[in-house]
Each structure stands twice: as structure tokens, then as C-alpha cells.
Amino acid sequence: MKEVISLELKTTFANRLKVLRGFRMLTLEELSKMVDIPAQTLNRYELGQRIPKIDVVAQIASKMNINPMWLCGYSDAISEQYATLDLHLSKLGYSLLWDGDSDHSFVVHSPEGNVYILGEEELKKLQDSTEAFISYTIQDILKDCKKIK
After folding, report:
1. I need a surface site. Which of 26, 45, 99, 121 has the fewest CB within 10 A?
2. What is the CATH number of the domain that holds 69?
């Protein structure tokens, strides 16, 4: 079982690292300088010849301002900024995916099968609206609860 998980993680990490580098239009050398990891090591990750340790994943994610869970294939939200929104949407049957083929676009699949393309601005509005609605709902519910302190 461990071999299957390692192979799956290695393949996912390799693909997502390549997608990230392509999305940011970086050469291996440029990415190497940004994340302080030798280009040869990054190349081996992209080829699936090596799998990084968790601290290396965290280092790459931090320097590239992305969600480390996305990099490893455990989340569809590339940005930690949208990870909470992704969680809320998934509970409602929606999925939020980063469109790696275009600049700063996200794809939302609805439970009804509709597909929507959102830019960064629309996604930010969706996140702000969701947070405002949740905050309002919490306050509305709590006003009828007994306050103990």
C-alpha cells in the first residue's frame, strides 16, 4: 500500500510542480532561485524520479504562495487563500478548480453539472460574500442564544 501512495504522490507532485512552473512562466533555474532548491533537484521532482520531504514541500509552497496540500494532490485549491472557500463550496456540492491552462482563472462545477469560469476578481467577490454570509448567519443565530459571559 505504501508503494501505491508514494507512486501516486510522486506523480501528482511532479505534475503539479510542472503546472505551477508553467503557470508562472518560470524556467527551472528561475524557480530554483526563488525556492532555494537546486535546479537539478527540481528537475528530478518534475520527472518523478524523487519525492520531496514535507519540509521541502512547505518551502516551495511558502515561497510560491500556494497551498502545500494542492501541491501534493490533497486539495484542488491551489491558493491557501481560497482553501476555505473550496471547503465551503465542496460541502454544497460544488468544486473549485484552478485552470492551469489560462492565467489566473478558476473553474467552478455546480452540482447540476454547469461549469463556470471565474477570474481572480470574481473569485475574491465570491469569497468575500461567503465570509460575510457566514458571519451574518452566526451573529443571527447567536443573538437568540443565552450569553454566559
Report:
1. 121
2. 1.10.260.40
pTM here? 0.56
- Secondary structure of 48-87 as H, E, C letters: CCCCCCHHHHHHHHHHHCCCHHHHHCCCCCCCHHHHHHHH
Specify whether 53 is located in the same domain as 24. yes
Kindly state whether residues 2 and 48 are assigned to the same domain.
Answer: yes
Q: Domain residues for 70?
A: 1-75
Instruction: Write the pLDDT tens digit of every residue in 118-127.
Output: 887 888 899 8
Close Cβ partners of 22 (under 8 Å, ≥ 6 residues apart):
100
Which stretches within the chain are classed as H helix? 2-23, 28-35, 39-46, 54-64, 68-72, 83-91, 120-142
Whole-angstrom distance, CA of residue 113 vs CA of residue 144: 38
Distance of CA 111 to the CA centre of its chain: 20
Quick one: 70 and 9 in the same domain? yes
